[in-house]
Amino acid sequence: MQYRNLGHSEISVSSIGMGCVTFGREIDQRESLAIMNHAFEHGITLFDTAAAYGQGASELVVGEWLQSRNLKDQIVLATKVTGRLTRQRIVTSAEASLTRLQTDHIDLLQTHVWDESTPLEETLEALTALVQQGKVRHVGCSNYSASQLASALTLSEQSRLIRMVSVQPPYNLVQRDIEAELLPLCAAENIGVISYSPLAAGFLTGKYRPDQPIPSGTRFDVVPGHQDIYFTEHGFQVLQQLDNEVRTSGVSHIEQALSWVLQQPGVTSVLIGARNTTQIDQALKCAVPC
């Protein structure tokens, strides 16, 4: 496992991060705790959740784990503010997250999506206040375009407000939009990149095929919106190319797809999801080139 500084911050994160979106939503607390224990014991130090995951259920599970293991100072805890990014909303969401996570501070608080309706200055002022109060160490964003992140960085400099240290975009063999503008911007501005969905929500595992029913209980069954992103002509072309690589090399779909993201320059940490500890082990094989 490699460890890298997150952008211009002093935070060091593992090259593989634990995405906690399934905890309390698709898998129960007992299995979630086992997965987090296994991840931590094998070197994963970044644990990423959000207020929106299971309407707070994920944060509750992560909070129970932190309380039971007393590991808060040994991991990097990241969560996200959902909905409108008004001053009041950010403060209220952060306070609720702190309660659910059973902690007095969040290492990385991220805005979950760009908010067109709230002045960016109001958003950054609220985030700055939380950092000044010691409730948040660093701030970042998720699902921002290059232009949106650039606007935030420019305003931070002009108004002397807190500067974002990271961005969290989707990145995989199908979704590669960030290569054009976002990755170059992050490299130039020393912004950490915490990418998610390296397996394209499971699309790149090979279990989905054109004109075949979606397996019950899978991510595309639980969150049907993912279908519009990956069930496309381009998506299935990429999957066909991956099939060919698997047949030639004998390396599985999962290892091929995850290794590809882990080896991309500019990516600080790659978030993985898991329903059991075996899936953690699969990912750990790719912590070094396969």
What does this molecule look like?
The chain has 290 residues and is an alpha/beta fold. It has a single domain, classed as TIM Barrel, CATH 3.20.20. 41% of the residues lie in helices and 15% in strands. The chain contains eleven helices and ten strands. The strands form two sheets. An eight-stranded parallel β-barrel has the order 3-4-5-6-7-8-9-10, surrounded by four helices. α3 packs parallel to α4. The model has no long low-confidence stretch (mean pLDDT 93).
Radius of gyration: 18 Å
Are there runs of 5+ residues with pLDDT below 50, and where? none
What is the rounded distance between the termini? 13 Å
CATH class reads Alpha Beta
Q: Give the SSE order as H and E letters.
A: EEEHEHEHEHEHEHEHHHHEH
SS content category: alpha/beta
Main pleated sheet: 8 strands, parallel, barrel
Strand content: 5-15%
Task: Name the shape in a single word.
Answer: globular
Number of strands: 10
Number of helices: 11
**Could you say what the CATH topology is called?**
TIM Barrel
Which strand order do you get reading across the main beta sheet? Answer: 3-4-5-6-7-8-9-10
CATH architectural arrangement: Alpha-Beta Barrel
Helical coverage, percent range: 40-55%
What is the CATH homologous superfamily assignment?
A: NADP-dependent oxidoreductase domain
Based on the model shown, name its key terms.
290 residues, alpha/beta, TIM Barrel, eight-stranded parallel beta barrel, two-stranded antiparallel ribbon, 11 helices, 10 strands
